[in-house]
Model the fold of this input.
Amino acid sequence: MLRSTSLRLAVLYTLGFALSVVLLGALTLYSTRAALSEQFDARIRAEAAALTQEFATEGLDGVVQAVRERDRTPGALDYGLIGPDGRPLAGRFPSSAAKPGWATLAAPQRDGEVEPVRVLTTPLPGGYHLIVGDDEERIEALDTVVLQGFAGALIGVVILGVVGGLAFSRDVHRRLSAISGTAEAIIDGDLTRRVPARGSSDDIDRLAHTFNRMLDRIGALMESLRQVSNDVAHDLRTPLTRLRQRLEAAQSAPAEQAEAIDGALSDLDSILETFAALLRIAQIEGGARRAAFRQVRLRDLAATVVDAFAPSAEEGGRSLRLEAGEDLVIEGDTELLTQMLVNLVENALRHTGEGAQVRVGIDLVDRAPVLWVADNGPGVPTGEHARLFDRFYRLERSRSAPGSGLGLALVAAVAKLHEASVRLSDAEPGLRAEVVFLR
Done:
């Protein structure tokens, strides 16, 4: 806990805020002291001016009487009147105070204590000097009040900062421990564990959601890897067994070696094609090809594929034509998109009979580009649509036809890479395959 980054940050923020309070307190104290000093000086000047006016109108006796009356008033200022000979005539200031201007003097107070007093000495006609002052202890008392207030605020800030920092650190530590615990569980093999999120949408919650999405992706890839391993073990057993039988037959019948070797090579080619298709699907599902995304014109791409396959379709007694609508542009990998459309077209041509029509089209549906391939062949039962995209899955009637059962799996992988969806529907008659891109 003491090594927690969140606690260290909380302590640093608390110290920084406390320093700000100290600086603010010092600035406030300085400003307050300056303002109070100015107010005290203004009060002294006003009192000195009033007594000077008293001297002008009432004479010496009037000023002496006024000073004595004020000096007896509790809470009043400090006064003094010095004669031309230097003798104090009224008040409590000694003759040494008779120096014009501002000064700080030690003067006896009403309680007998000697305290520093800020005084203003004003010369009067006839050589007299009027002294008016105030006890500096009043300013110091106010300074003490201000300091006590800021000291209390500083202590409160530190306490709140420490308590809040501990609470914040404990909360962050608990949530990060949950992430760490999830990672440890996954390292130990539990790929189903996920980081708990509390729905606050803060940084840690967003990190948890991102972490969980990453785990979902890793889980999907691991499941795909297991599925591929199972598929390879299951679907390659037959050609490998057949290959072994051909080689054993060639070994026991030298006269038939050439035919057996040709058959073995054909089986090996089929196996290699299957492995190549699996590797290509794995590469696509890994997402590495996103770096090759560029602008792709769907009409040009479809025209290229249709032009390439139209002659062979005609030779087989089928027709292949393009029904391009708008000239739509998407971001994607041209090579993979071409392979995807080739697989869809080949699938349609392979599973339709003589005289069938295969159409390739481009539409804009709900502002989403749609690339589709439709035929009027026998179609596929609705219940089989979802399974057609599984690796090595083939309809029962297609078991004897050439192919690995990976063509539509590659179509699904390319579509997912482009954040598109693949939909199959009944073309009445035939099958319609649509790839819907999200712009």
In short: The chain has eight helices and twelve strands. Residues 396-400 have pLDDT under 50 and may be disordered. The CA atoms of residues 55 and 276 lie 118 Å apart. Residues 203-285 form a domain with the Helix Hairpins fold (CATH 1.10.287).
